Amino acid sequence: MSELISSELIKKAEQGLKSRVIVCLDVAHGRVVKGVNFKGLKDMGDPVELAVRYQEQGADEIVFLDIKATLEQRANALEVVTRVAENLSIPFTVGGGLNTYADVAQFLNAGADKVALNSAAVKHPDLIDQIAKGFGSQCVVVAVDLNQGQSQKQDQNKPLSDYQVFINGGNTPTDLDAMQWLAQVEQRGAGEVLLTAMHRDGTGLGFDNELMSKVSEQLGIQVIASGGACKPEHFTETFLAGSDAALAAGMFHRGEFTVGQVKDELLRNGVAVRNEYLKD
Amino acid sequence: MSDSVINEASKTVGVINTGAGNLYSLNGCLRRMGFYPVTINQPSDLERYDISALVIPGQGRFRTVMTNLKACALDEVITNWYRDNKKMVGICVGLQIMFEESEEDPGVSGLGLLQGKVTRLQSPKQPMVGWADVQSNEEWLNNQTLYFVNSYGVSASDKSIATVTYGQTFVAAIASNNTIAFQCHPEKSGVAGEEVLKQCLS
User: Fold this and answer.
1) Exposed/middle/buried for A225, CB within 10 Å: 0-12, 13-18, 19+?
2) Fewest CB within 10 angstroms: A78, A210, A212, B115, which?
3) Residues A44-53: what's their mean pLDDT?
4) Could you tell me the CATH superfamily of domain A2-268?
């Protein structure tokens, strides 16, 4: 195990890119919100102020998920995106409710560095090609929500085909083969994959690193691990398993840990990270 | 408040409109650094302001940027500015178009201010997305951790002042005449990026 870990670290160091820590903010009505099982949304503050705070803590990137980006709220959401672009000095991604090329163009033109597509990519895979062609692969993050098959939960060597692709905020299962879908996403021109293990989301058990490891090895684009983190050690584990970036929300929003504490932990374990952040 | 800034000529920076992306991030970054960014859409805009430096923003592909620049005669603006040894900063594709051509769009000529060709990177994953340390003999640039987003780059140049390694080693920054250009995005690179830009624009 320790040999495996050191070889993965050496590989990463030779490659030269830092492991990225990403903070996810849910936005509704122009405010950052925290939901309890998507019910009873609690106001957490202004998106720009919170994003800047996480940037100062050392976040390498921010993902905004506009969980209520209905058409009526579009102008408001675009205004928030522009304010973020003007005030943040790190990259940010916007996702949620983007269904067409015109939607995506609006958000990129408003200042977003990247967009995250989820259900729309499954329903209209051509959208990935179109955005990659129009704006470049670096603008397209495809978010893939996977859930583990019920019968396979105890199997440590489960094949990827045992993971099911879900859409519509994790509510609707699809017939897609997980690995085939991920390969297609790459082939169509996505720049990164945001891979959420739904069976880990909110559990605090850590990322599904077997899954992240397999996908990261098989894809020629970067993999952002998501779902399950509740402490700094979880980030170390997923980077050692091969994830290129890792995303969390709750553990930061609840004030349990700062991004800086995660990075301190990563540096202690020899994971190369950007170390520009405020010390506590 | 803004009047005092506008009148301070040394703080006015012209941002070339390449028509290939929004300028919110770049303008926001310049303002945070105390500069006053103005958009240059056509050659005559240069006469409207007392500009201390030009910036070529980093969004868009090689062909789109070259086509748009030519349509507005901004390619000549950049070339003349470069030849007159005036202060200029290029970002990402803004570095790439200074070379002769790019594998991203074969057959499209760059500005040819610098010798060489932009090639597809042999990187472990493409596009390269993320933060990396640059190596440089310049103290202000060496070991800075900066944000890269690119699939193409210049593998070597006699004007290189910094390199970065992701699978292969390639040019992270060049300096020639009074122009400094980056393959990375300093405007997206936190405090380190702002410090690097300040060094170039001050």
Assistant:
1) buried
2) B115
3) 94
4) Aldolase class I (3.20.20.70)
